[in-house]
């Protein structure tokens, strides 16, 4: 499966999980420390926007900050967040569907990075955070094997940096023979036993 298809599938999975999260659950906690369901929906929405800008190579406006709502959610009531996030997710997926976008360098608001690294990293982030949201809101969750492998590769690549920065927890031991996505969860500091994961 191509990296473009994996990215699109990751966005689709995240958007479906956002749509499945009832607004009445937005104050609930999530596996992401200090994130409520609303915070996690916002984080995914912001991720779609950042990925979109990385694909187009547009700079981030100076007013953007990680502690804020995604700019396109700021003036919307929470009941409209899922639709708005879905629209931005679709735009990001469409932008990354062009194979040329994966070539050369882009950015995630800082210094230049290989675009392929950004695309792969965001693919993994979207899948893992979709699982977080599914756990928090009691949704079933299925990850296709190829997408699980992509998530494992992405999480393995960023785990060291994430632990040093404090945004990835200590690795949770997972059997070496477990499906790739369960191992990705363990590498990212999550316990896959919190929710049975369909192996797709």
Automatic annotation (TrEMBL):
NCBIfam families: maleylpyruvate isomerase family mycothiol-dependent enzyme, TIGR03086 family metal-binding protein. Residues 16-134 form the Mycothiol-dependent maleylpyruvate isomerase metal-binding domain. It comes from Pseudonocardia lutea. It comes from the Bacteria. Pfam families: MDMPI_N. This is TIGR03086 family metal-binding protein.
């Amino acid at each position: 499966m191509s990296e473009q298809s994996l990215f699109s599938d990751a966005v689709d999975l995240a958007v479906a999980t956002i749509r499945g999260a009832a607004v009445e659950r937005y104050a609930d906690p999530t596996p992401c420390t200090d994130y409520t369901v609303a915070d996690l929906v916002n984080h995914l929405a912001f991720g779609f926007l950042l990925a979109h800008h990385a694909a187009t190579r547009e700079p981030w406006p100076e007013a953007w900050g990680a502690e804020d709502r995604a700019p396109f959610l700021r003036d919307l009531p929470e009941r409209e967040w899922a639709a708005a996030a879905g629209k931005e997710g679709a735009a990001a997926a469409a932008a990354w569907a062009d194979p040329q976008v994966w070539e050369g360098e882009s950015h995630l608001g800082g210094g230049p990075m290989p675009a392929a690294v950004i695309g792969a990293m965001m693919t993994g982030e979207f899948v893992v955070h979709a699982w977080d949201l599914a756990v928090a809101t009691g949704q079933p969750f299925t990850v296709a094997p190829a997408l699980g492998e992509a998530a494992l590769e992405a999480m393995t690549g960023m785990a060291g940096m994430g632990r040093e920065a404090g945004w990835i927890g200590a690795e949770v031991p997972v059997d070496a023979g477990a499906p790739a996505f369960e191992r990705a969860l363990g590498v990212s500091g999550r316990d896959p036993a919190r929710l049975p994961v369909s192996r797709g």
